[in-house]
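Please study the protein below:
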Amino acid sequence: MRVSALLVGLVAVTAACGTAEAPSAEHHSSSRSPAPTTLSAAPVPPDARVGALFLGGGELHTCTAGVLDSKGGDLILTAAHCVAQDVDTTFVAGFKDSADPADVWRVDAIYLDPRWVQNQDPLADFAILRVARDGGGTLESESGGGLTIGTTPKPGTEVDVTGYALGVGGGPIGCKASTEMVPGGFPSLPCGGLVDGTSGAPWTTGATITGIVGGLDGGGCDENISYSPPFDDGIVALLARAEAGGPADTTPAVFDDDC
């Protein structure tokens, strides 16, 4: 779920991303013992409202994002640690194996919570991105609708999570599990197999996003349990600012988790 080392490499050598072999999705040990789980993510059909995020202008997808229901129909939601300054970023909704050029949307603006800009607070590990393409139209209409932003789920709430493992090609993986809450205010989700690349993957109940893979330790140091930043007034204010089309934010170049 962490992409910090990858972002460092992309900032330095973005031109090499299209041909480089995909990094392995290693997970580092954590001082916290992983929660026992019998659930595991498995391949699922693509959802047109969820897609893969590509950093570096190549074929390597490194994170996941969800299409938002917004006034302009051109916003997506992902984890703040998934984006970096001066790295070309594109998005493909409902990605499966490959994408036609007409399905590729470039990220034109990044909106971040002030807490993330100032000190990369994991409680604000969410970002809203504005996208566009040369052929015009809106992403939301092309996706058949967008997802609304809800509030942090109560413990025991069953959610679906869909994301993309770090790599080239392939399709989405998904899991359905009940949320828990850990100290510090981070919702958690016990499900194995949500590996690197699933950062930003939306937690949904119907058409509402109540969390994303991110937050504590960039989403978690062990693939058997994932975290989300809490959805509070900060994300509501961020959506309003993105919809208003105000100035974009300067993105920190590197995110360093504790894994």
User: Anything to note?
Assistant: The radius of gyration is 16 Å. The helical segments are 4-12, 114-119, 139-142, 233-244. The longest strand covers residues 60-67.
